[in-house]
């Protein structure tokens, strides 16, 4: 009988759970709300309860379950200790040990962005690669570094914090992290909208963007595809900054591929093609010709990656 | 009896060799010239001959020798294949296999800058760390990434090519690599001299630097230490660009420490202190407080690291 495991992605508003086979088939998925009250102290209790209920409801054989993988929104060290998950109200404690105590299952924990990268490598846009960089362009910009098939955690759990690479040292507005010039300020969904407002104020050129009441990354990419000059300027700027950050990363780890996900990546190959074009101008000869892929798992990347975390290589 | 190994550093003009104990004692070191004629086809023959001679001269017991580690000036893949060592005249071939055939000893091969990083981790400025970045500020700027005690090679052997991270996208002069704006153009010994000439041409300020006929990185740092304003401006610029590149690296791999070597690092703690100061302004909170160390092994880093390569973790 094929063994099973749970892949769990704890977010600020909901906890996503998946029941997987060892080979990567998602048998079932569901969500529960994230109870943030009392410093988030009920979150893991709720996770344990819903896992136990699933086992009972489906008559799963306990001995057949490998364990539980969990992704959390914050830095995590190799042993599963979270440092500060602001969105969950958590301080410093060992999530692996706590979950093992509550469920009796072996547990491994990773940062949510890192885990999503692992998920894309396993069953998504990064299938077939063992060394890749995933960048998630959403409300913010997250990242994950996969080397030799495993997450690179870093000495303080802060490896892959790609969104906070400085790409524009002369920027004056501050990023959410408190410093100015981060990739997140230019390549996130919120970043490109902010840049659009700046450009529309500054430029006198006509643009379809001026007619849109609630600008969004999607609207900007759509207008760019229709040939709108200002929208294309914005898309180029985003891709140029993203390519610069990816070129920095390439000179450090020389990956096989880049996988781009998050809401902004719905723009599709326009995003990857243009980013690749700028990237090629920014790197040594030996680092050219990397593969640029779109993520495929969407919001499920986290549960896939968490499952892979506990399954191992 | 403690086991022994050879650590070998093949450079464009000479091959450095060291005989080491497994625990890192350098028993003897010597050099032979690098014969670059005939596409460098005699280099490994010469290495094999001098190794055999050493074994005979010192009456070493063959069974007591672990093997040979080699550093070469160019990209090398995990299996020991060199891609293009321009300085040696080498094309594409497997240096490990060739050396094993010529000597009968197990051989491992790495890029010279990566191997130097491993050497500094083992017996130099990086002792006690398992995750570090080494930057060598010499005629060019080289780098090495050590993760979990081992060299990160990268998918094409180009990991740690730190000197070619773009730090100034608006620079117009080209680096040796053919692109403009690389760290090497600002943080190498040749880079700071070039920047000095630029600044002296542009500025009308008096400076001791104007009296020096043959400007060097050392002279610039010496003048800076004596309080010369223009020299300090140049040192600040170098440290600012270096710190920017190190901050990029930190957001990717989150190392424990940075080790700075090469001729420019003879400037000492002035270099590390100022670079650390600028670095702290460029990184996320979780990446602050890294250790900044000076390299300690000088030109021997390569033979130490090559020895460690064959000894393993």
Description:
The structure is a homodimer of 313-residue chains. Chain A is of the alpha/beta class. Chain A has two domains: 4-121 and 300-311, 2-Layer Sandwich (Nucleotidyltransferase, domain 5), CATH 3.30.420.40; 129-295, ATPase, nucleotide binding domain (Nucleotidyltransferase, domain 5). Helices cover 37% and strands 20% of the residues of chain A. Chain A has ten helices and twelve strands. In chain A, the strands form three sheets. In chain A, strands 3-2-1-4-7 form a five-stranded mixed beta sheet. A five-stranded mixed beta sheet of chain A has the order 10-9-8-11-12, with helices on both faces. A two-stranded antiparallel ribbon of chain A has the order 5-6. In chain A, strand 2 (14-21) and strand 3 form a beta hairpin. In chain A, helix 6 packs across helix 8 (229-253), helix 7 packs across helix 8 (229-253) and helix 8 (229-253) packs across helix 9. Chain A is globular, with a radius of gyration of 20 Å. At the A-B interface, helix 8 of A face helix 8 of B.
Query: What Rg of chain A do the Cα atoms give?
Result: 20 Å
What is the CATH C level class of the largest domain in chain A, in words? Answer: Alpha Beta
Main sheet attributes: strand count, strand direction, barrel closure of chain A: 5 strands, mixed
Question: What is the CATH superfamily of the largest domain in chain A?
Answer: ATPase, nucleotide binding domain
